[in-house]
Amino acid sequence: MKIALCNEVLRPLPFEQQCALAASLGYDGLEVAPFTLTDDPMRFSDADAARYARIAADHGLEITGLHWLLVAPAGLSIVASDPSVRERTVAVMRRLVELCAAIGGRYLVHGSPHQRSVPADTTPAHAWERARACLTHAARQAQSCGVRYCIEPLSRAETDFINTVEEGVRMVREIDTPALRTMIDCSAAGQTEAEPVDALMARWIPTGMVAHIQVNDPNRRAPGQGAMAFTPILRTVLAMQRAGHYGDWIAVEPFDYVPDGAGCAARAIGYLRGVLEGLDDGR
Questions:
Q1: Fold adopted by 2-282
Q2: Is the pTM of this model over 0.85?
């Protein structure tokens, strides 16, 4: 199992220092939030992306994918009633797919809760139709670029649109392309889903609908810094890998950095490696 760190955890360090620290802690890769590299992806070139990929590679890291996609530029939404807003959002989504491929990533995680929450002037049904149209464009671009676009179920505390894996799967099936999948964020799932996260994984990963996993605690801190038990979760992921249902990567994505970004990243990788070592010893 390979472990990536979501790079915003190490902001405001320059990217090269993020890579050096992540590598020294034992991470295998970085999952990148585009807003940490540029305030406008439309002005970020493929050459820029390739330069960041080289920096990561020089430190022995892969850039695994992109997440937190629609933070910048401001004013984006996949459910807005204004068609021009959705058109601008789709353009950014398509460009981010291209940049993911250019930077060496394999997937994009579409969380961005504020940019998909249902506006006051919109019904949930209309929001679903608008989001489906936007995600269809992104999925087609992902298929063209050879990456996967993952719609992320988020907790109801963050958004009122796609809160469960089942809802994410519904969107995936309606769009019906192998380039679009859903994923499991342990923090969001722990807050929202009716079943334990390991049981959720055992149910959905074999369907092929889940293409990525982010590990974090429902208290929004790193794995090992809350009440969620990650031994059954990682045991399930390993079983899914051995059965050929899941790939190599999981990503550490805390939101509350205790004691700070670097300390949080260090505690997370130590905890996860310890759990995995124990599972290896016991198999």
A1: TIM Barrel (3.20.20)
A2: yes
